Amino acid sequence: MIGRPSLLMLTAASAAVAMVGNAVGLAAMPSGAQAAGSPASSRLGVAIADDLGARDQAAVRRGRALDMREQAVRATEARLKADAGSRQDAATAAPAQPSSPGAPAGATPPTDQYDDLARIYQAMKPASAALVLEQLDLDVQMRVAQRMRERSTAMVLAAMTPRGAAALTMALARRDARRPPSAVRPAGAALSKR
């Protein structure tokens, strides 16, 4: 039976070779790594280390994003404070403007708001604009209608109720009657500009 080695002999020989290999590996390892165990030497250890590294990188990215958001918030706060301060300075420096006799002081919005409202109502469908415009105070209706194009004003007036259209028309006529003749635009001049 000398010709063929048995399975038991082959298993014993491979175990002996593995023991020698492990002994050589342990001898070559630094003393600190022997005590702590080296998880990075196996596939599982490498995968864990990679996952930890990816998690740390994601945490760093989130931290940077939060820092940038915080800086943006601080810059916005500073800009808003500066804007509020400049508006407050402008409000204290600007002389009080006379308001209409029936309106309380400070109740009328600035002129640029009326311009914005006029653009909004011109962009709306006349029927929708008429419904909303009729709900407003007559003074606001008049100021908005004055800043709208004549065609848009006519279409909105046509869509209003007869009572609302008459009231707005009378307010516009009174406003034009109070202007000096040079300030009133001739009808042909308004059409030639547009």
Detailed description of the structure:
The protein has 9 helices and no strands. Helix 6 (138-147) crosses helix 8. The chain has 194 residues and is mainly alpha-helical. It is 75% helix and 0% strand. Mean pLDDT is 80; it is low at 98-106 and 186-194.
Which key terms come to mind for this protein?
194 residues, mainly alpha
- Poorly predicted runs of 5 or more residues: 98-106, 186-194
Along the chain, the helix and strand elements come as: HHHHHHHHH
Main beta sheet: none
What does the overall shape look like?
elongated
How many distinct beta strands?
0
Radius of gyration: 42 Å
- Work out the helicity level: over 70%
* Structure class: mainly alpha
* Annotation field: number of helices: 9
What's the average pLDDT? 80
Strand content: under 5%
Q: N-to-C terminal Cα separation, in Å? A: 117 Å
Brief digest:
With 194 residues, the protein is an all-alpha fold. Helix 4 (111-123) crosses helix 6 (138-147), helix 5 (126-134) packs across helix 7 (150-159) and helix 6 (138-147) crosses helix 8. It has nine helices and no strands.
Q: What topology does this entry show?
A:
Elements: H1 7-28, H2 31-36, H3 43-93, H4 111-123, H5 126-134, H6 138-147, H7 150-159, H8 162-178, H9 187-193
